[in-house]
Amino acid sequence: MKTSVRRVKHAFVALALVAITAAYGADVPSVSVGPFEIAARLRQISSGAFPNISGNPFGRMTVSDFEVRYRGTPVKLSDGNAQVSRFSEAKFLEGAPRPTILASEAGTYLISEQNGQVSVEVLAPASTDIASWQWLDADNGQPAPPRAITVRDASAEPRTERGGRLLLLNRRVVLDVATLKHYPVIVNTSENLRKIGDYNAGNEPVRAMSPGRTQLLYVGNRYENARFEYALVAAEYATGLVYAVPFDRNALRFESVWDATPGWIARNFEWTQDKNGVERIQLRKNFKPVPWQGKLRGTHPQMEYVLYPTQPQAFDEFYGYMQRVFAAAPAALPGSSQLPNTQVVSVEG
Fold first, then answer.
1. pLDDT score recorded for residue 21
2. Residue range 37-45: average pLDDT?
3. What are the Cα distances from residue 201, in Å, to 93, 133, 188?
4. Cα separation, 91 vs 185, whole angstroms
5. What are the pLDDT digits (tens) for 51-91?
6. Are 114 and 126 in contact (CB under 8 A)?
7. Listed residue (145, 111, 151) closest to 131, CA to CA
8. How far is Cα 273 from Cα 280, in angstroms, rounded to an integer?
9. Up-side HSE of residue 211: CA atoms within 13 Å toward CB?
10. Terminal CA-to-CA distance of the chain, rounded, Å?
11. Among residues of the chain, what percentage have pLDDT more than 70?
12. Where do runs of H (alpha helix) occur along the chain?
């Protein structure tokens, strides 16, 4: 009996060793530019799935992290009291004046070579917020959506970051890739909030850029008189200038912050320059409000058409139009009850 127990114990130890070894996958090929190298490592972690969702409480997922090496030696940096040597994201910056790596873990860091040795700058220190990168001039000179730096398998993604010249990092720093100069941009300090009437845009992505690429535009809001009020908040990243342009959300047909596209901003606002050439945005004069428009949401085969704000008769008229033109028939979503002011229909094709 004792022999049998020992054999079971030995078998269990062997199984545990196999499981631990399997937690790390084979490394993918590294990428080198100049004196720098980015090496990826694959590993498996708990997927965090609940048994009632995945059916497997021991589910695993593959994730990657990255090591940056300078002339073969791993780069280690200090961020506050933390020592950082592996990163959730690390990419070579296209358009930089010298081989440069942008890397993020909880914070975001710039790694380059200066005077024949490695140089590390903490652009945005670690905080409770997830690190993020947002190109400010990638889409015809306008911002691309921000990208959160999350735990995932990024090993197959390109190791070069490209998209424009200006990058907003962790919503706090603008990096000029062409010069590697960087500028703090914090619109929700107590002093700035007092200046702009308490319109808070601290958690907002940049919605548009000024024509001269000197100012970032956010949507700020405040809660006054039992309702939300909105303003465009402009920040000139090189000087620290911050100001707000309040607007009437009904007159500008503004339902939510997702309406604040570059096109909506261009239709309702205009840019001017003062005698010193400083850009300034303001409401267009003598503009005429456009009709409210419905919005399509979701993807085929289940989509929503949202009519808001509107009167009940407009809802009934639109439903009748769907019946006449598209032969819409009443339907129901499996496992859901009918919501107020909602009609579920099925349409062929």
1. 38
2. 94
3. 28, 17, 7
4. 23
5. 555 566 677 889 999 999 999 999 999 999 999 999 999 99
6. no
7. 151
8. 6
9. 11
10. 70
11. 87
12. 2-22, 51-54, 190-195, 262-268, 312-326
Structure tokens at 312: 């009940």
For 163-176, write each residue's pLDDT tens digit. Answer: 999 999 999 999 99
Contact 221, 200 (CB under 8 A): yes
Amino acid occupying residue 102: L
Q: What is the mean pLDDT of residues 245-269?
A: 92
Band the pLDDT of 4: cuts 50, 70, 90.
Answer: very low
For the beta carbon of residue 165, count every other beta carbon within 10 angstroms: 16
280, 271 Cβ separation under 8 angstroms: yes
pTM comes to 0.81
In the sheet where 73-74 sits, what is the strand order? 31-33, 36-46, 60-70, 73-74
Q: CA–CA separation, 175 vs 116, rounded Å? A: 23
Which are the contacts of 42, defined by CB distance < 8 A and separation ≥ 6? Answer: 24, 25, 26, 27, 28, 62, 63, 64, 153, 155
Q: What's the CA gap between 206 and 217, in Å, rounded? A: 6
Q: What is the 3-state secondary structure (H, E, C) of 317-341?
A: HHHHHHHHHHCCEECCCCCCCCCCC
Sign of CA dihedral 89, 91, 93, 98: positive
Taking the C-alpha atoms of residue 215 and residue 349, their distance in angstroms, rounded to an integer, is: 46
- For the chain, the structural domain boundaries read 24-48+59-184, 190-283, 295-346
| CA 31 – CA 28 distance, rounded (Å) | 10
Per-residue pLDDT at 336: 55
Instruction: Give the angle subtended at the CA of 315 by the CAs of 311 and 319, to the nearest 5°.
Output: 165
